[in-house]
Automatic annotation (TrEMBL), chains A, B:
Keywords: DNA-binding, Transcription, Transcription regulation. Residues 41-60 bind DNA. SUPFAM superfamilies: Homeodomain-like, Tetracyclin repressor-like, C-terminal domain. Residues 18-78 form the HTH tetR-type domain. This is TetR/AcrR family transcriptional regulator. PROSITE patterns: HTH_TETR_2. Gene3D superfamilies: Tetracycline Repressor, domain 2 (1.10.357.10). The lineage of its organism: Bacteria, Pseudomonadati, Pseudomonadota, Alphaproteobacteria, Maricaulales.
Length: 214, 214
DNA sequence: GCCCCATCTAGACAGTGTCTAGTTATACGA
DNA sequence: TCGTATAACTAGACACTGTCTAGATGGGGC
């Protein structure tokens, strides 16, 4: 039987791994999930993949490159998760669409705390990297369009799009970050994460878009 | 003349530093401000303070201990900054008080991005540390009380205190985190940070507390 | 004045990122 | 089919790190 772990380690006796790059990224994910972001090292990642300690540098340049690639992978996965959620929810109007997106954002962050962390870290890689900024920018445009749609549909007066966009992203991002930092969780032990996520997102959206005027 | 740097380095020829603990914390701050969180090492911090590489371990146990102490120092400073801001603003009612607090929170994070980062990191120290949790908890209670006061004053119907507290903290925290990560800033180059901070905080507060009912 | 003990030093060790020169094997053009 | 350019990977070296030890120093309380 070929387990998932087999695809991580290099086939014995072979010089070339075959798909080392993605194997190293999956090793990074495993390490972060099990022992935290601080446990990631090029050498340990190489060890898991069964290659020499210098091999990762060839694919990512240096450790910053590995973390940046992991962050970009996170953006890809998050965008995919959001699109999947929206497809499943089939929201009827703009505000419902926004709730669906917001919930999916927070849910992804809760389910992948390590990777979400890395996606927004200031010190692990060059923040000016074009691909990295591009991933975040397209997410921003997506959110801005969603909110503009709510306004166009008459759920709120025009002119507030920029402020609402900042508020909406800030709220879901802050909720995710605070939850993962253990602050919200420690104060509301009895709170069901999914219910809280839904409740908060619906409350904010209702406040921003109280309803189509007569 | 006695510059600030003099108080960092140990007086020559003396064995005991005198106030090594706080000198090490200030060295940490300097390092983070100038070269990022990743640049902090016990040895470099010791070098700046002019002591041997093993000295910091005696005060903080290990590197986690240093970062935890730095995080706690951040909480102290942030709470102080918020109280000072509220005193200066002299807000007339609950919502105005909340705006004052929110603005001060974001302003502190913008002015101290490195320390703010460390305050909420999941991987630099033991999150279950009692002092660390205590600092955050008292901030939470403070915010919850503020929002309860808005409700008591009739600015919103009762029952929403918990949800509003989560929304309010999430929003300011997310705004601070996104701004520091370079995302908001990169999209709104022309935006004045202070004006944006004020605008967003006032918009959210107005949405939550539209006004005292007749 | 004396002694306890907090403070600090200095060396050792394993682990790390990165650099370099060299080895292997794959893809591709003739 | 063969050669070769080149991508993929190895292995050793180096400076640096956190942490552990044994020991040196000197300030404060009795």
């Amino acid at each position: 039987m070929r387990t998932d772990h087999d695809t991580l380690t290099k086939p014995q006796g072979r010089y070339h791994h075959g798909d080392l790059r993605s194997a190293l990224l999956r090793a990074t994910e495993t390490l972060i999930a099990e022992h935290g972001t601080g446990a990631v090292s090029l050498r340990e990642v190489a060890r898991i993949a069964g290659v020499s300690h210098g091999a990762p540098a060839h694919h990512f340049g240096n450790k910053d490159g590995l973390m940046l690639a992991f962050a970009q992978d996170g953006w890809d996965r998050m965008i995919e998760a959001i699109l999947t959620a929206v497809e499943a929810d089939r929201p009827g109007d703009g505000p419902a669409f926004l709730v669906s997106v917001g919930k999916a954002y927070v849910r992804f962050a809760m389910a992948n705390p390590g990777q979400f962390d890395v996606m927004f870290r200031r010190d692990l890689y060059d923040l000016r990297d074009r691909g990295y900024l591009g991933a975040g920018d397209s997410a921003w445009v997506f959110l801005e369009d969603t909110i503009q749609r709510c306004i166009d549909e008459g759920f709120a007066p025009p002119g507030a799009a920029q402020t609402f966009t900042i508020i909406a992203w800030s709220m879901v991002h802050g909720l995710a970050a605070l939850w993962n930092s253990g602050r919200v969780r420690s104060r509301f032990e009895k709170l069901d994460p999914d219910r809280m996520n839904e409740q908060v997102n619906e409350a904010l959206t209702t406040m921003m878009f109280p309803g189509r005027p007569a």
